[in-house]
Amino acid sequence: MVAMIGGFFAVSAELLLPGLAILCRDWPVLQAVATLPLLLLLSYWCASVFPESPRWLLATDHIPKAKRSLQEFTSRNGVCLQDEMYPGETLMSSAYGEDHQPRYYSVLQLRRTRVIWKNCLILSFTFIGTGIQYCFTRNLDVYNFYLKYFLRVVTGALACVFICLCVNHFGRRGILLLSAIVTGLSSLLLLALTDLEGGLVLVLSVVGLLFSQALAMLSAFFACEVMPTVVGGCFGLVLAAGCVGMAASSMMELQDKRGFFLHHVIFASFAILSVLCIMLLPESKRKSLPDSLKEGESQRRPPLFLSQQKRDCLPLLCTRPSVSEYNPDNYSRLVSATRKMLTKDNLPYRIAGPSVSPLLS
Predict the structure, then answer these.
(1) Closest of 271, 65, 314, 300 to residue 179, by C-alpha
(2) Alpha-carbon gap, residue 359 to 361, rounded angstroms
(3) What percent of the chain stands above pLDDT 70?
(4) Given this model, what pLDDT does residue 313 score?
(5) Cα torsion at 44, 45, 51, 54 (round to 10°)?
(6) Are the beta carbons of 133 and 209 closer than 8 angstroms?
(7) Residues with Cβ < 8 Å from 359, sequence gap 6 or more?
């Protein structure tokens, strides 16, 4: 939810940027006005303004800090709690000893995992959504600059609305797969129609621009739910991959659009490859968020067929052997067969008890 709210704020900022440019009337002034609000990010260092997440504190065993953070949230929400409601023998105090040390995790620990790093690598294909947007906006150069700009911003707003309406009903992985398929098909059709100009090229450009932005937004949103809480750097890697795609588009503008065909072919190939990789991702709809590395490793991908919707499967790339399930029917059959075999009289051997002489002859 927070990721989608951030997407709406980004779209609103792009809508307000032309009006701000008209008011400033000078490029250096506009640059200064757009940069000064970033100083507000320094308030993140102030714990009284932006307290640390209690979920992360509990996941990394910062128990005293988590208790203080929860008490601060209750006081800010206007919930009056006395000190006797926080006894020393609480659940957290009993579960963790006094000498329990907090644990810290880094991104480098992903190399010891089997599933988490694969999910992070697949979701890093978000740079396809940001880098391939240049392939669609280039076909709109024949129109007015303001029309092209507002068309890109409006498609971004529609992508946010599309994700909010469909992702909770059809699932994160399904909508991400649909966005990758439509983006790849639009890109391939535009490659085939390079020498043509007309309504079909315009429609394919707008549709590809819409779903490429949905692909980039949903990849970041999906990473928030799939990556473990203890390793926050995974989400940063996904966002950094998106910046790689933006840098590739900027380099094409600086080179005066030379090498555009190669740029288009590379990103179209990545879009088709991402369709196959997205099938390996788990589904996070209506499931608890993973906190530890163990919970992140135990995530399963949903089945490909609707008939097995309630049963999760192991990831295709996971090499761990599957655990056999206990079947009581098979066990009862084995017991009954063994009992019949032991009660037969025509056995090649007889199981007899020890011969004891009678006490009275």
Answers:
(1) 271
(2) 6
(3) 73
(4) 52
(5) 100
(6) yes
(7) none
Look up residue 256 and give its two tokens.
Answer: 């005066």
Tell me the two tokens of residue 64. Answer: 């005293």
For residue 5, what are its two tokens?
């709210």
Question: Where does the pLDDT of residue 224 fall: very low under 50, low under 70, confident under 90, or very high at 90 and above?
Answer: confident
Residue 192, Cβ density class (10 Å: 0-12 exposed, 13-18 middle, ≥19 buried): exposed
Compute the mean pLDDT over every residue in the chain, rounded to the nearest whole number.
76
Angle of helix 260-278 relative to helix 233-254, nearest 10 degrees, comes to 160
Query: How far, CA to CA in Å, does 183 sit from each of 186, 199, 208, 223?
Result: 5, 18, 5, 20
CATH number of 109-283: 1.20.1250.20
The domain locations on the chain are 1-50, 51-80, 109-283
- Which of helix, strand or coil describes residue 301? strand
φ, ψ dihedrals at 313, nearest 5°: -120, 160
pLDDT tens for 91-134 read: 455 455 555 677 888 888 888 888 888 888 888 877 788 888 88
For residues 253 and 194, give the distance between their C-alpha atoms in angstroms, rounded to a whole number. 19
CA distance 77 to 56: 20
pTM of the model: 0.72
Hunting for tokens 């953070």 — which residue is that?
69
Cβ neighbours around 40 below 10 Å, total: 9
Q: Which residue has the tokens 């080179």?
A: 255
307: tokens are: 């008939």
Residues 6+ apart with CB under 8 A from 120: 110, 223, 227, 234, 237, 238
pLDDT at 211: 92
